[in-house]
From TrEMBL:
Cofactor note: Binds 2 Zn(2+) ions per monomer.
Keyword set, alphabetical order: Chaperone, Cytoplasm, DNA replication, Metal-binding, Repeat, Stress response, Zinc, Zinc-finger
Annotated organism of origin: Acetobacter aceti NBRC 14818
Similarity-based family: Belongs to the DnaJ family.
Protein name per the record: Chaperone protein DnaJ
Subunit field text: Homodimer.
Gene: dnaJ1
Entry binding sites for Zn(2+) 2: C168, C171, C190, C193
Gene3D superfamilies, sorted: DnaJ domain, Heat shock protein DnaJ, cysteine-rich domain, Urease metallochaperone UreE, N-terminal domain
Length: 381
């Protein structure tokens, strides 16, 4: 068995990384190595799987603590790899209590169905959506490579179906054996049947005794309005088949929301930068701005508005997950300095500057700053 890489090294972070920095590192790497952007590159696909596995563990405080203390041994035998949040925010596992139960109880046994058979593996994939799709919600069709039950043997793995399957004589169908390790008795997969609990005499030629065959499958997933970048949706039972008598694994869909050229999102609030000419900011004006829902809104800019000021539009922000309410929109004014002036424009600005110098009240911050600068130097003399 290949040695697993350190989860922190996989995400290219240190062990002291904060949760926010961890999330940023994950998003960057997931986008870089996503299979859709690296078609036919097996190494990129494997890297993508490693990135998702590492993030599934380190983003959860309990699992991260267990990993820091016990390493990969804390999650061996989970059947489908490290557990995680489902879309509703619940755990796929139950925190440290379940981790210790796995280590010292059903260690490496995995989820099992009837007859002691292990559940199918979980599948990870990623879907990119636009900010507009995240606002309204959207349905997306995805095609995944998965394993389905072999029709030739009905998932038994035997050429003669049930007739060619016998209970494993080593573990008596349990799929696991007990071993003494110091003060503890640890259960491990049976070496004779590899945890299956059964022995196949004549393997099925179609699936080679596995009970499942690889096959592409297309699914339609509903992404709700208000979903955030980095959200993981769990589709129970849509992973790989575990064969006859065993439950299927789960499908985890990671949502990547594309950046917008107009808006920046912060939770349920939306920010939009609007450039103004110097005269517009000085005299006051009214501007029309785009809204994330595709409509327009009018914003009155009072005379004397300074660069960086915000104007709030209530209820014009982003949709809130599982709610009919919306956040707010903030319009940030950016006052631009004119460039490539004509001769006449320069003359007008020179006249304006001369007039402004004689009436300092028209630029209170300017006057106040240089007054403080004067006091500063006089105090040092």
């Amino acid at each position: 068995m290949a040695t697993k890489l350190d989860y922190y090294a996989v995400l290219e972070v240190t062990r002291e990384v904060s949760s926010d920095e961890l999330k940023k590192a994950y998003r960057k790497l997931a986008m870089k190595y996503h299979p859709d952007r690296n078609a036919g590159d097996a190494s990129a696909e494997e890297r993508f799987k490693q990135i998702n596995e590492a993030y599934d563990v380190l983003k959860d405080a309990d699992k991260r603590a267990a990993y820091d203390r016990f390493g990969h041994a804390a999650f061996e035998g989970g059947g489908g790899g490290p557990g995680g949040f489902d879309f509703g925010g619940g755990f796929g596992g139950g925190g440290l209590g379940d981790i210790f139960e796995q280590m010292f109880g059903d260690m490496m046994g995995g989820r099992r169905g009837g007859g002691g058979r292990s559940a199918g593996a979980d599948i990870q994939t990623q879907v990119e959506i636009t900010l507009a799709e995240a606002f309204t919600g959207v349905k997306k069709s995805i095609t995944i490579k998965t394993r389905v039950m072999c029709e030739s043997c009905d998932g038994t793995g035997s050429k003669d179906k049930e007739a060619g399957v016998e209970v494993c004589p080593s573990c008596h169908g349990a799929g696991k054996v007990r071993a003494q390790q110091g003060f503890f008795v640890v259960e491990r997969p049976c070496p004779s049947c590899h945890g299956a609990g059964r022995v196949i005499k004549d393997p099925c030629p179609a699936c080679h005794g596995v009970g499942t065959v690889e096959q592409p499958r297309t699914l339609e997933i509903a992404i709700p309005a208000g979903v955030e970048d980095g959200t993981r949706i769990r589709l129970s039972g849509e992973g790989q088949s575990g064969g006859k008598g065993a439950p299927a694994g789960d499908l985890y869909v990671h949502i990547a929301v594309q950046a917008s050229e107009l808006f920046q999102r912060d939770g349920s609030n939306i920010y939009c930068r609007v450039p103004l000419r110097m005269a517009q900011a000085a005299l006051g004006t009214e501007v029309e701005v785009p809204v994330v829902d595709g409509t327009r809104a009018s914003v009155k800019i009072p005379a004397g508005t300074q660069s960086g000021e915000h104007f709030r539009l209530r209820g014009k922000g982003f949709s809130v997950l599982r709610s009919s309410s919306r956040g707010d929109m903030y319009v940030q004014v950016v006052v631009e300095t004119p460039q490539n002036l004509s001769k006449r424009q320069k003359e007008l600005l020179e006249e304006f500057e001369k007039e402004a110098g004689e009436h300092v009240k028209s630029s209170p911050e300017h006057a106040g700053f240089f007054s403080r600068v004067k006091d500063f130097f006089e105090g040092r003399s």
